[in-house]
# Entry
Amino acid sequence: QVQLVESGGGLVQPGGSLRLSCTASGFALSAYDMNWYRQPRGNERELVAHITEGGRTDYVQSVKGRFTISRDNAKNTVYLQMNSLKPEDTAVYFCKPIGRPYWGQGTQVTVSS
# Structure
């Protein structure tokens, strides 16, 4: 059974950090480019970060220099390290393999003082 589980979200003050994890079961993440998306309440889902099978990365402009996407294929997990968080980063965060219709339940990130 294919499953994606995102975790690591929470409430953090502006300027703080969180590390999100996305762990897969039922398929190998290593075979796919992976994306992290986020969806603020009442808004559309947007692409935040991308990592290729080979480890090349790309980011939406608003998070460049603050977020880092990485992968550990041995753990079948993709990470999103988020530093210098801002209130506008508040959203539910999701991961997804490119080319497969697999979505997890997401993890809520709230940046507020």
